[in-house]
Amino acid sequence: MPETKLTAIVPNQKGLHARAAAQIVSLSSEFRCEIIIAHGDKQASSLSLIKLLTLDAPQGSELTVISEGADSKQAVHSIIQLILKGFGE
Asked: Which of the two ends of the chain, N or C, has the fewest CB atoms closer than 10 A to its terminal CB?
């Protein structure tokens, strides 16, 4: 299966902090595909809160969501929407 890949700019003031990362983990657990979040040269599994925090992604950062698997398109689009909405902040 081909991978799905989209990019979004982090709009919220606090960037990718613990609560925002926890939302990504929670949303990602609903899908059956592998999802990777990338920032610069760093990558993290979307299911690992600690790894997501190591991406060090403040406001204005470009995050790329990469997924491969059965529901990868839906997963990537859902996570991109979460990012674009500023994690509800």
From this structure: N
